[in-house]
């Protein structure tokens, strides 16, 4: 599990050390740096997948495209280098990268520190996953990042056809959620972690996804069918058990937005890391609260979850899950990112007790309802 992330001269952060837990909530104003935290992890994971062997961090990749070196270097510092550090159970790694050309779409590895000790980067030593090969293959940090999945807030909307990738090794729903239906088709008979299984429903992925979708949208159902002669599947949905299955664009938009999240949570295996942006998109308040509960249940099952959210309903779902003893309060991290012009972005960490109460409520932290109510009164 990832325990901490350290960013130096990366985007809006001159220097940031941020603790992570089994469930981490990133909240705050737009432009405060929440997405940058996630992007740092995605850049490392993307590089491991796209360039297993090599000495550079890919900035412009198929999942995350941030532009060139100048776009990711902190604008307030004059440095031509940046550092990304990750701590997992029993290991801390810090990668330093140096830019020779600010226009480049990747940045070259300059130094590696493991537990504070600099590792020599000899020219003749093979580098795998941005580590000397003898260290890479047994690294808990590398292993966690290689098992990382990211679902962006810009998820695939209703589509007639969805891609059907090859079955071997399929473990991700795609950063837009576009492969969720294909994953469900190939892995529908996989057993779901018993901690996440709804009672009286077969414990397989397909049946549990259906059951959890009905938890959010009572009466809804889904069907995934392959298309002959094409590497694609069709997803058909219905919002009422008395109606026929319909094309996704003819049912509530929230169903297609939630579907890849449900598939990703239930398909994840112990030790996986899930990054999910704005799980509340297009969901009504009760469903937003329920997704907060499900995210907490997933974290309690052994899957690490990091979410970015603007929803107090999602937060309240997490608080309720803690109060209901579904997730220990010690396993939740809440970070509030405020915008402070002229200052380095420095999020405030908020702790939660066993009854779901927060130890502080800083200005701007889900307080807009109170401001509006005071005006209305």
Give your account of this protein's structure.
The chain has 377 residues and is of the alpha+beta class. It contains ten helices and 18 strands. The protein folds into two domains: 1-153 and 278-376, Rossmann fold (3-Layer(aba) Sandwich), CATH 3.40.50; 155-268, no CATH class. It has helices at residues 34-50, 69-72, 133-136, 140-146, 180-187, 205-216, 253-267, 285-300, 312-323, 368-376, and strands at 2-10, 13-19, 23-28, 56-58, 81-88, 91-98, 106-114, 117-119, 127-128, 131-132, 148-151, 162-163, 221-226, 232-238, 273-277, 304-308, 332-337, 348-350. Strands 1, 2, 4, 5, 6, 7 and 8 form a seven-stranded antiparallel β-sheet that branches. Helix 5 packs across helix 7, helix 6 (205-216) crosses helix 7 and helix 8 packs across helix 9. The N and C termini lie far apart (47 Å). The mean pLDDT is 92.
Distance between the termini: 47 Å
**Major beta sheet summary:** 7 strands, antiparallel
Radius of gyration: 21 Å
Nearest-integer average pLDDT: 92
Shape: globular
Structural class comes to alpha+beta
* Number of alpha- plus pi-helical segments: 10
Low-confidence stretches: none
The number of distinct β-strands equals: 18
């Amino acid at each position: 599990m990832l325990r901490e992330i350290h960013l130096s001269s990366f985007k809006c952060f001159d220097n940031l050390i941020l603790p992570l837990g089994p469930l981490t909530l990133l909240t705050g104003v737009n432009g405060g740096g929440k997405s940058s935290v996630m992007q740092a992890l995605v850049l490392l994971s993307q590089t491991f997948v796209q360039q297993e062997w090599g000495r550079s961090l890919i900035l412009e990749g198929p999942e995350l495209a941030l532009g060139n070196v100048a776009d990711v270097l902190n604008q307030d510092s004059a440095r031509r280098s940046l550092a990304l550090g990750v701590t997992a159970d029993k290991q801390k790694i810090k990668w330093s990268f140096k830019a020779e050309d600010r226009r480049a779409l990747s940045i070259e590895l300059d130094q590696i520190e493991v537990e504070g000790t600099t590792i020599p980067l000899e020219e003749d030593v093979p580098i795998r996953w941005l580590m000397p090969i003898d260290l890479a293959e047994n690294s808990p940090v590398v292993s966690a990042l290689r098992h990382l999945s990211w679902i962006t807030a810009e998820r695939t909307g209703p589509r007639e056809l969805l891609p059907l990738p090859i079955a071997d090794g399929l473990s991700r729903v795609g950063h837009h959620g576009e492969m969720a239906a294909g994953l469900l088709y190939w892995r529908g008979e996989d057993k779901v972690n018993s901690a996440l299984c709804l009672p009286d429903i077969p414990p397989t992925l397909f049946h549990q996804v259906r059951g959890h979708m009905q938890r959010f949208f009572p009466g809804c159902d889904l069907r995934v069918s392959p298309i002959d002669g094409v590497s694609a599947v069709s997803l058909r949905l219905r919002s009422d058990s008395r109606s026929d299955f319909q094309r996704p664009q003819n049912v509530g938009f929230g169903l297609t937005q939630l579907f890849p999240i449900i598939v990703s949570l239930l398909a994840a295996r112990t030790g996986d890391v899930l990054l999910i942006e704005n799980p509340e998109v297009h969901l009504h308040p009760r469903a937003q609260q329920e997704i907060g509960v499900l995210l907490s249940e997933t974290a309690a099952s052994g899957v690490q979850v990091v979410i970015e959210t603007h929803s107090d309903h999602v937060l309240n779902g997490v608080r309720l899950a803690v109060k209901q003893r579904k997730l220990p309060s010690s396993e939740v991290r809440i970070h509030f990112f405020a915008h402070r012009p002229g200052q380095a972005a420095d999020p405030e960490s908020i702790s939660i007790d066993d009854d779901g109460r927060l130890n502080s409520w800083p200005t701007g932290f889900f307080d807009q309802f109170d401001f509006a109510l005071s005006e209305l009164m």
